[in-house]
Every structure is written in C-alpha cells, then in structure tokens.
C-alpha cells in the first residue's frame, strides 16, 4: 500500500484552503478577497451544474423562448450572468461589475459595497454549448482605494493592475485556474465533495511549444506579420518540425491547452475587424495576466472602453517573441 500517496489523498488542498494560506502571508488582510472568491466559486459550481444538465433541463435554446411549463426559458449565458451578478453583489465585497452580458457596468448599491471591481464573461464560447464542447467563465479583479467614490475609470485600468484573474473551464472536468499575482494554480472540481482541489500547482508554460491555435478561416484578411508567422509555423525555415494546429473556438479551452502544453494562441486584428474579436477587459486582460504569471507572455492592444476589443497573441515566451519581432519589423518599415 502506498501510504505516502494515501496521505496525499487525505490531506486535500481545497481552493479555499489555498487562498486562506495565501491570506495568512498578509497579516493586514481582513479576508475580503477570500469571501469574494468563495462567491465566484459558487457561481462556477452553479454554471458547471447547469452546463452538465443543459440538455436534460431544456436549458438550451434562445432567451425569450417558452418551455413546456410555459415558463420563459433562459439561455445558459443569460442564466450564468444572473448567477454571477447576484453572487458578486451578495458577497458584499464588490463595487463595480462589468459583464460581457450587460451593456452598462453595474454600480453596486453603497450599502453592499466592497473594494473590489470584477470584470467577467460569465459564459464564454456559448456558440459551443449546443454541441457539448468545452466553454468557460473568465474573470479579472481590480481593487479600488475608495469605495465611496467610484467611477467607471476604476475598471478602465491596464491588465497588469489586476490583483487576480482566472477562468473556470466546463469541460470533461470542471477546473478553475487562478492567479492572485504569485504564480498560477489549477483546481479541479471533485463532484462528490463539491470542492475544487489543487491538482495543478504552480503551472509554468513551456518556453516554446509545438502547437499554434488560430481561426485559419480568417486568413484571407490577415495582415502581413500574422500571415508570415502562421506560414512559418507550417513551413519552418530552420529545419525544425512544423507546429500542429489546434483550435476549439472557445477561448478558455484554447488558452487552457496552450498554458499546459505550450505554443501560441492568436486572435489577430484583420482587414475586416482591425481590433480582432476578443474583448479587452474580460477576455484579453485576464488571460494575459495568467500567461505572464505562468512565465509566458502576451502581446495586446491598448483599448480602454468597457466592451472594447483587441487583437491578442499569447502563449509560450519564445513563440510570442517571434510574432512580436515580425510586428516590430513591420512597424519599423512604416
Ligand atoms: P462565442 O461566445 O460567440 O462562441 O465566441 C467565443 C469567443 O469569444 C472565444 O471564446 C473564442 O476564442 C472566439 O470567440 C472564437 O471566435 P471565432 O469563431 O471567430 O474563431
């Protein structure tokens, strides 16, 4: 019998325990972040359960449709948004919420306000729901100084100013990947316990990878550096093997694979959509934060409106370095 392995299995590092451990390193901390996170975790568990039984519960369908009971059906992304907004407000630790689903930012009632601003996409990749492909929730957290004087500018900050970022992937297993600014850790939901357990401690992305991930269907509209980079992935000039192409079309799934296996994820701007597709605040910034914390890098635009989009190139350090060099030399020519 492997007693050591057994001891490991009986001394579970849950996400809450992990965050409490981190909190104890900051004696001035009052536990607000731990409380906020436990409400985010609750939202993730709810969405995970809803995604798992989506077909059964007839949750799939367009918002506004009516189900057999004559009740209004809610699309999963609408439902997920409501769950996260309610969980975040009721935590008593938030002051501004920016959700992909809501056109305007939510300013929390002063009586329930705390110091954190949360930007999030409650269910990213929703076009993949109906065919059972992995989807996810992405979030980023900022902290403000004065909760009694908040304005939208408090969330229109660079991604590097986030105090934490993460995502929850609803896939073959449900996983939260989180960084509070000192590395990246992955926690897998044990459905029998209802707890996220630390399964991927201190994730580090390989310095160089063998996979590139991009929607090649947009190739005819790409600019020079993106086209040249992808061409190099397929026809390397240095005698190395070509990279493999993997593209799910769910950012969380594509970034998760990139984080674990290495390589590069690209959603460039192109002639049709110069700012790309992905949203700066709740897709590009949180994923870039995680990549950098895992030792990779990200190369983004600098837009600053709540639903603004930006091109994004992120992944293994050396792979991103290559595409950055191509853009730098294009810029030098201009
Ligand atoms: P949906 O939420 O419409 O499915 O979009 C998903 C997403 O925002 C992101 O998760 C993917 O990386 C990206 O769009 C895929 O976009 P393309 O379909 O244009 O490749």
Give structural notes:
- The chain has 334 residues and is of the alpha+beta class.
- The protein is built from eight helices and 13 strands.
- It folds into two domains: 15-200, Fructose-1,6-Bisphosphatase, subunit A, domain 1 (Fructose-1,6-Bisphosphatase, Chain A, domain 1, 2-Layer Sandwich), CATH 3.30.540.10; 211-332, D-Maltodextrin-Binding Protein, domain 2, CATH 3.40.190.80.
- 32% of the residues lie in helices and 20% in strands.
- It has an eight-stranded mixed β-sheet, sandwiched between helices. A five-stranded mixed β-sheet has the order 10-9-11-13-12, with helices on both faces.
- Strand 9, helix 5 and strand 10 (244-245) form a beta-alpha-beta unit.
- Helix 3 (32-52) packs antiparallel against helix 4.
- The chain binds 1,6-di-O-phosphono-alpha-D-fructofuranose.
- 1,6-di-O-phosphono-alpha-D-fructofuranose binds at residues 124-128, 215, 249-251, 254, 277-278.
- 1,6-di-O-phosphono-alpha-D-fructofuranose is lined by residues 124-128, 215, 249-251, 254, 277-278.
- Residues 205-327 form the Fructose-1-6-bisphosphatase class 1 C-terminal domain.
- Its cofactor is Mg(2+).
- Keywords: Carbohydrate metabolism, Cytoplasm, Hydrolase, Magnesium, Metal-binding.
- Pfam families: FBPase (PF00316), FBPase_C (PF18913).
């Amino acid at each position: 019998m492997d007693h050591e392995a057994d001891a490991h299995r009986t001394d579970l590092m849950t996400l809450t325990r992990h965050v409490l451990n981190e909190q104890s390193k900051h004696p001035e901390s009052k536990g607000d972040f731990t409380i906020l996170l436990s409400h985010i975790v609750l939202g993730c568990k709810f969405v995970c359960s809803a995604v798992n039984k989506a077909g059964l519960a007839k949750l799939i369908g367009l918002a506004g449709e009516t189900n057999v009971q004559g009740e209004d059906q809610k699309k999963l992304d609408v439902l997920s948004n409501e769950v996260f907004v309610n969980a975040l407000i009721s935590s008593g630790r938030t002051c501004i919420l920016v959700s992909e689903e809501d056109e305007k930012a939510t300013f929390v009632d002063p009586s329930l306000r705390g110091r954190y601003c949360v930007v999030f996409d409650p269910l990213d990749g929703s076009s993949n729901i109906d065919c059972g492909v992995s989807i996810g929730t992405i979030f980023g957290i900022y902290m403000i100084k004065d909760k009694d004087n908040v304005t939208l500018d408090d969330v229109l900050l660079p991604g590097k100013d986030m105090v934490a970022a993460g995502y929850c992937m609803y896939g073959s297993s449900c996983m939260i990947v989180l960084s509070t600014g000192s590395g990246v850790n992955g926690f897998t939901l044990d459905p029998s316990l209802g707890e996220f357990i630390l399964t991927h401690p201190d994730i580090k992305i390989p310095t160089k990878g063998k996979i590139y991930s991009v929607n090649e269907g947009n190739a005819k509209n790409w600019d020079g550096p993106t086209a040249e980079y992808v061409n190099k992935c397929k026809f390397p000039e240095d005698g190395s093997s070509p990279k493999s192409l993997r593209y799910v079309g769910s950012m969380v799934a594509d970034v998760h694979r990139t984080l674990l296996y290495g390589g590069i994820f690209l959603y460039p701007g192109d002639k049709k959509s110069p700012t790309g597709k992905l949203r700066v605040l709740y897709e590009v910034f949180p994923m870039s934060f995680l990549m950098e914390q895992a030792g990779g890098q990200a190369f983004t635009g600098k837009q600053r409106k709540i639903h603004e989009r930006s091109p994004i190139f992120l992944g293994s350090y050396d792979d991103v370095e290559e595409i950055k060099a191509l853009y730098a030399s294009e810029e030098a020519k201009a």
